[in-house]
Amino acid sequence: MMEYIVAAVGKWNRELFEHESKLIPGKWKFVDSPESLDLVLADSNPRYIFFPHWRWIVPPRILNQYECICFHMTDVPYGRGGSPLQNLIIRGHKETVLTALRMEKGLDTGPVYMKLPLDLKGSAEEIYTRTSALTWKMISEFVTNEPKETPQEGEPVIFKRRKPEESELPETLELEKIYDFIRMLDADGYPNAHINFGKYQLKFNQAKYFDGKLSANVDFILKEEL
Predict the structure, then answer these.
(1) Strands, DSSP E only, in 23-85?
(2) Structural domain count of the chain
(3) Which residue of 53, 73, 189, 213 is most buried, as measured by CB atoms within 10 A?
(4) Which residue range or ranges hold the Methionyl-tRNA formyltransferase-like C-terminal domain (predicted)?
């Protein structure tokens, strides 16, 4: 039986793995750290290693020995690099594609296997949920058809990873752009859009924009507690 490894962090990724891997043929293993990946590889010979959401650099010894697949939320070579969702929304994009590409030493420079359209409506959390569903649709396609890779074409555009201090809400934005700024940071593990107000930091989430009006939930946090 063919072996496959899914390497990802986060409780939701493990739960998704437990559900989706049962629907696809093969022997499946889940890892959530570089150490657990090394342990599993010591006793496995996977056809693919899928990296839906990974925080660490994968060493060349793994990239060179196995076919490693990552999933990037841009139409590469446009948008190589960090914080793709936030960089797309802040540039005014309403839709994008999810790209499955082979991992290599360069960041998001590898050949492409497939791309699927991805809507950028809603909060970051909602978009990531849609992305996860698309990712497993792609994983199923890999197992079923083993798609061929093709080189990236076009002029690269590099995205920079955003820093937590860049989550402070700019004062010059129009209302719809404020909505975009709040929603693009509204996901578990991300620093919410915020402003400073005296001894408090006001954090914004659950934004809604309709008919020229914006509403959002606001949390007042004492700065000394941050």
Answers:
(1) 27-31, 48-53, 68-72, 78-81
(2) 2
(3) 73
(4) 164-221
Give me the CATH number covering residue 89: 3.40.50.170
Measured over all CA atoms, what is the biggest interatomic distance in the chain, rounded to whole angstroms?
Answer: 62
Sign of the Cα pseudo-torsion (144, 145, 147, 148, in order): positive
Both structure tokens of 103? 């991992």
The model's pTM: 0.93
**Tens digit of each residue's pLDDT (9 = 90 or more) over 177-189:** 999 999 999 998 8
With 0-12 / 13-18 / 19 or more C-beta atoms within 10 angstroms meaning exposed / middle / buried, residue 29 is: buried
**pLDDT given for residue 222 in this prediction:** 97
Residue 121 has pLDDT above 90, yes or no: yes
Range of the domain at 173: 164-222
Is-contact 162 87, C-beta < 8 A?
yes
In degrees, rounded to 5, the angle at the alpha carbon of residue 75 between the alpha carbons of residues 69 and 80 is 70
Task: Provide the pLDDT confidence category of residue 11 given band limits of 50, 70 and 90.
Answer: confident
